[in-house]
Amino acid sequence: MHTTILVTGATGTVGREVIKQLSMLEGDEIRVRAGVHSVITGENLKRLPGVEISEMDFENQESLHAAFTHADKLFMVAPFADDQVEMEKTLVDEAKRTGVKHIVKLSSMGADEEPGILLGLWHREIERYIEDSGISYTFLRPTSFMQNYIDYNAASIKQEGKFYQPLGNGKVSYIDARDIAAVGVETLLKEGHVGKIYELTGPEALSNNEVAALLSEVSGKQVAYIDTPEAEAREAMLAQGTPEWMADAMLELYGVYKSGSATKTTTTVEDVTGQKPHTMRQFLEDHREDFA
After folding, report:
1. Which pTM value belongs to this model?
2. Is 106 within 8 Å of 77 (Cβ atoms)?
3. Considering only the top CATH level, what class is 144-176+201-263+275-292?
4. Which CATH number fits domain 3-142: 3.40.50.720, 3.40.50.1100, 3.30.499.10, 3.90.850.10?
5. Which residues does 218 contact at the CB level (< 8 Å), separation at least 6?
6. Where does the chain hold its CATH 3.90.25.10 domain(s)?
7. CA–CA separation, 200 and 264 (whole Å)
8. Which of 42, 119, 192, 241 has its CB 3.0 to 4.6 Å from that of 36, i.e. a possible disulfide?
């Protein structure tokens, strides 16, 4: 008898990696269903062996029901949007309606801190909703992704040899999305993770100046970090079309990093998977072409 795993946000940084790692497993016991906003955006996932694409429209109940039909487990990721809480509650409701047995939710480090920041408050509200649903769960609370350096900084690093962030000299225990996904896969497939909350970090906390030094070594060219004033960073985000609420939420998160409150490291990745998490150097070497 097989187990069907639905992964929402399947084209995102972590969701895509979960799909990839699940698809590499041998045997017919696992069926992987990738929940995507549109079939076109999920086109690349079709190349992975055994992956089924399911279009999900939050305003179309039929599409959600189709995606959840016969799904046994759910890896839940939702986009950072102003209706994120409502979207994830809708997923939980559908999971309960269709008999999903276990939910692994991608949350955020510090989700339970008080008074908390907007992003953390949202995640904790959804966590509580899952707890109250009666469905068994595992919460993954990672720190900032190493992949963000590709998504947000690679262009300026290539063009100028510089990247810009309002973090001062604050250190962050960045984590590779591959390690988050590896923990997610373990919690989806193995016993012993029900009701657990896993705080996930990389093996070290680094400042942007330290990351810039590593980038310089790995890329073979000088890379500099430019500490950007918050007002200037906000103006740049707004100029790029970022909604005001999102710009403010991001600056709130950056403020946590700048204050030195994101330096905590855990051994959870190795404890759960048996493998040490990637270092920043390993990550940058694996993605050298994105920066060189």
Report:
1. 0.96
2. yes
3. alpha beta
4. 3.40.50.720
5. 281, 284, 285, 288, 291
6. 144-176+201-263+275-292
7. 10
8. 42
